[in-house]
Design the sequence.
């Protein structure tokens, strides 16, 4: 049977005609989510359950001399107390994660966990925390990235710098990376103008509305179960098993519905602690974080300090570009300085380009991934300089970007040569859009910027089972964070030629499938979709074989079309088609149940580009900025469910608006976070915003059977720069420091 | 510590419970009555995920004591649909894809219902300001506002 990527009857070169993909059906988990029935991390209970709470360091940097928990342990209702002493050494590759979940010799940031209790009620657990005596020796601290790099800065970890780090900087610099090609100095020498600017961005939090939560049950035999809100329950299983020294197969992890993640739920915080408490108390333990804990102790993104230098000719051609990107990643190595360095100039076709990235540790919570980690800050700096140069020459900023745009065959600034990509299409769509020509009011400015994200594939398993009545159940291993179950059901229905409502997709627990990479890297619709299509094709092969058996013909002479097996070639028309339902009904008598599965380390994710256009209005009296119009242009490859693609575009843009205008981690002189709550860490609210218009471009990804590209992350890359370019125009002064909060904008206007 | 006996009506059903004096209505709903539709996003009244109505007034149940509910009528997301018939707001949220992760959805629906009871014809700006106390991190609010405006129009037509 033909199993290529074309629909039956489709001629080579013709676009595939879809029946389900590209439509907007209701999501399968929708009714649960509008009626309050959907069960999130904190919504699960177990008989005999205890409540766990964490004691956190009030110091930014302190040696832990001793911990005395005896009074807490003596309190009625307290069933277990754990400290670092209750964890073994653990594997080397999870050492930092363990130390972040439960401090060892030192508390490295305000909010760092130092002990935890499990008690019969939350009130008793809270009371018990106050009875734990921790003897701290406070140490000098550093929270700013540039300060942390200085040779005399307080050092978090001795001897952590690797061989890439040059002499003369602090040991807080862990790693240095370099990317690029050509000769930037020669390129700058050829430019009509060379512009160098420095930028700063504040740390921001992913700001998911659901705090971290889990329910752990672990017996003395090492058999354990965990219910948890996470972007990757297979990752949770593997990490917890390594930390606790148990076999991965003995820990079954079930992913709850997840109330947002944006990268912040791609690691563990409470989970190993809850398991350790459960093991010690021999009872189920539920743990949830408060919002204050989420902000103080879970992954914000890096704050950064970036220098960009670009040489441009007066016709707009860039002759050379370089950037120095300094990212602090909190108390442990692993800031996304590398990805910032790789993405900074990715939208451009450059002869001479060089980026240097610095991974720096500071006394802040360990940075976690945040939607296109590392890229938005780099794009902010680069796109600001491109904009200033273009405007300086009196050129149209979209024309300048089109002139330098990366295209098929461009050797990217980070190495690979691009296949078919959609950057030019987004720029052209922006240029042709009415928004570009619309008049601006007083104190308003318009900004544009481009953004790039790699996208990712990774380990993926899908199992597609056909029930005796011919409906389809699809098991996949990636938490559905924004409607992916709908997309999987749609792709399975498309491939099988059956209605969407005949497929139910579930997120299987870790016992049901092989390894699955975390829901990250915008990988799910691409990779799980690819595996779903391949699993469906494997099932169709079996279905065709069963029909061939009934008809007594060669299986190769059967094709699958419109939900039925049909005799093909010489046998065409000899037998009436057999539907999926009919074959399912006789499956038991023709060899047994029918299923298709597919396991892959998916490659060919297909990079993604976007262009954003935004109008802002600056109040010259207060410095307050209002976003008055916003349009997103992004390549989706193929939009499986366009409404949820639009949702990703809009959500990313608005997170970027928050990052650009409001959100920041504010530290006091004492190194403690001053704004650990949604009142003072202010994410955008409905009254801050206009509608967010979207334009979906579809430049098919050659690596996916339907052309799908991930769309989740690229949408947060351009907004910081687009808004900065817009505000700079409106305010009449170049803004280089995020967030552009009213006091900063006002000061910039007043200082000219 | 002695507990307080509370008699209330929740989604039309008479309900009795004992609660600690310092226990929030949100904790009572979630931990004692297994009504987990209201969510705790912040515990400080900033995110609106715990929105319910008390005698028709929209409140953050995380800022209301369980004991305060004595003699009151509480409505939660669990009581919004009429049996198997969804409220127009619930239906429009599905049709407009006005939710992604769904954690803020119960609170936003409760708040939006409260808006439309007071103001059946809100402008977009009025809807945006009424819902400014309900944080959503996924959607950028675009589709939420469209769903609320569409539901308002449908409810006006039906009345």
Sequence:
């Amino acid at each position: 049977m033909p199993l290529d990527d074309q629909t039956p009857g489709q001629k080579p070169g013709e676009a595939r005609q879809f029946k389900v993909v590209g439509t907007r059906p209701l999501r399968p988990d929708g009714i649960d989510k509008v009626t309050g029935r959907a069960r999130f991390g904190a919504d699960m209970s177990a008989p005999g359950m205890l409540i766990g709470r964490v004691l956190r360091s009030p110091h930014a940097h302190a040696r832990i001399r001793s911990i005395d928990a005896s009074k807490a342990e003596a309190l009625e209702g307290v069933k277990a107390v754990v400290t670092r002493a209750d964890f073994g050494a653990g594997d080397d590759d999870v050492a930092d994660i363990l130390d972040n979940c439960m401090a060892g010799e030192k508390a490295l940031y305000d909010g760092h966990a130092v002990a935890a209790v499990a008690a019969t009620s939350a009130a008793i657990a809270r009371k018990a925390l106050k009875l734990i005596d921790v003897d701290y020796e406070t140490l000098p601290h550093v929270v700013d990235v540039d300060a942390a790099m200085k040779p005399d800065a307080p050092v978090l970890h001795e001897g952590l710098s690797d061989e890439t780090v040059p002499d003369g900087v602090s040991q807080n610099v862990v790693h240095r990376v370099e990317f690029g090609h050509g000769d930037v100095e020669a390129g700058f020498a050829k430019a009509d103008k060379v512009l160098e600017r420095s930028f700063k961005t504040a740390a921001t939090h992913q700001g998911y509305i659901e705090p971290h939560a889990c329910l752990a049950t672990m017996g003395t035999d090492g058999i354990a179960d965990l219910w948890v809100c996470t972007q990757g329950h297979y990752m949770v299983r593997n990490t917890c098993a390594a930390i606790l020294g148990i076999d991965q197969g003995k820990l079954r992890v079930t992913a709850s519905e997840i109330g947002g993640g944006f990268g912040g739920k791609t690691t563990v915080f409470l989970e190993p602690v809850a398991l350790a408490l459960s093991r010690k108390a021999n009872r189920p333990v539920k743990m949830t974080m408060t919002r204050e804990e989420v902000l103080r102790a879970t992954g914000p993104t890096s704050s950064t300090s970036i220098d960009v230098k670009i040489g441009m000719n007066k016709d707009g051609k860039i002759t050379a570009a370089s950037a120095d990107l300094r990212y602090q990643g909190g108390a442990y190595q692993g800031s996304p300085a590398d990805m910032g360095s790789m993405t900074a100039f990715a939208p451009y076709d450059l002869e001479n380009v060089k980026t240097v990235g610095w991974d720096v540790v500071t006394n802040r919570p360990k940075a976690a991934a945040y939607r296109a980690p590392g890229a938005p800050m780099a794009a902010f700096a680069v796109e600001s300089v491109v904009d200033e140069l273009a405007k300086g020459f009196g050129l149209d900023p979209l024309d300048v970007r089109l002139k330098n745009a990366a295209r098929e065959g461009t050797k990217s600034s980070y190495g690979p040569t691009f296949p078919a990509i959609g950057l030019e299409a987004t720029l052209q769509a922006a240029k042709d859009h009415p928004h570009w020509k619309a008049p601006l009011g007083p104190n308003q400015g318009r900004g544009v910027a481009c953004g790039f994200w790699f996208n990712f594939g990774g380990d993926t398993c899908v199992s597609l089972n056909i029930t005796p009545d011919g409906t389809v159940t699809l098991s996949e291993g990636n938490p559905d964070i924004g409607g992916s179950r709908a997309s999987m059901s749609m792709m399975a229905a498309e491939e099988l030629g059956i209605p969407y409502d005949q497929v139910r997709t579930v997120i299987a627990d870790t016992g049901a499938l092989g390894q699955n990479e975390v829901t990250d890297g915008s990988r799910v619709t691409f990779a799980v979709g690819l595996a779903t299509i391949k699993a469906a094709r494997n099932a169709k092969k079996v279905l065709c074989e069963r029909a061939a058996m009934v008809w007594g013909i060669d299986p190769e002479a059967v094709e699958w079309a419109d939900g039925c097996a049909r005799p093909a070639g010489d046998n065409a028309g000899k037998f009436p088609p057999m539907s999926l339902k009919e074959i399912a009904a006789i499956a038991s008598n023709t060899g047994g149940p029918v299923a298709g599965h597919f396991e892959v380390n998916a490659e060919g994710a297909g990079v993604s580009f976007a262009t954003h256009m935004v109008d802002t209005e600056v109040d010259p009296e207060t410095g307050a900025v209002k976003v008055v119009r916003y349009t997103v242009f992004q390549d989706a490859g193929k939009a499986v469910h366009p409404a949820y693609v639009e949702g990703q575009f809009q959500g990313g843009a608005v997170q970027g608006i928050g990052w650009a205008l409001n959100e920041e981690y504010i530290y006091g002189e004492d190194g403690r976070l001053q704004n650990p709550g949604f009142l003072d860490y202010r994410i955008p609210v409905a009254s801050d915003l206009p509608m967010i218009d979207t334009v979906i471009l579809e430049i098919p990804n050659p690596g996916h059977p339907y052309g799908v590209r991930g769309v989740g992350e690229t949408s947060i890359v351009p907004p910081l720069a687009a808004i900065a370019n817009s505000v700079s125009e409106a305010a009449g002064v170049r803004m280089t420091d995020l967030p552009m909060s009213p006091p900063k904008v006002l000061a910039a206007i007043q200082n000219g | 510590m002695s507990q307080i006996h509370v008699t209330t009506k929740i989604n039309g059903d008479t309900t009795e419970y004992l609660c600690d004096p310092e226990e929030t209505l949100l904790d009572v709903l979630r931990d004692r009555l297994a009504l987990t539709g209201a969510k705790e996003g912040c515990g400080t009244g900033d995110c609106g995920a715990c929105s319910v109505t008390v005698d028709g007034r929209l409140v953050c149940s995380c800022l209301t004591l369980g004991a305060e509910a004595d003699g009151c009528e509480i409505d939660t997301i669990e009581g919004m649909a009429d049996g198997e018939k969804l409220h127009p707001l619930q239906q429009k949220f599905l049709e407009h894809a006005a939710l992604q992760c769904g954690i803020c959805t119960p609170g936003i629906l409760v708040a939006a219902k409260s808006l439309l009871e007071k103001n059946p014809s809100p402008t977009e700006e009025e809807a945006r300001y009424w819902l400014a106390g309900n944080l959503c991190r996924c959607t950028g609010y675009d589709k939420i506002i469209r769903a609320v405006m569409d539901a308002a129009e449908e409810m006006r037509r039906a009345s």
Remarks:
- The mean pLDDT of chain A is 96.
- The longest strand of chain A covers residues 318-328.
- Chain A has 20 helices and 26 strands.
- The two ends of chain A are 71 Å apart (CA to CA).
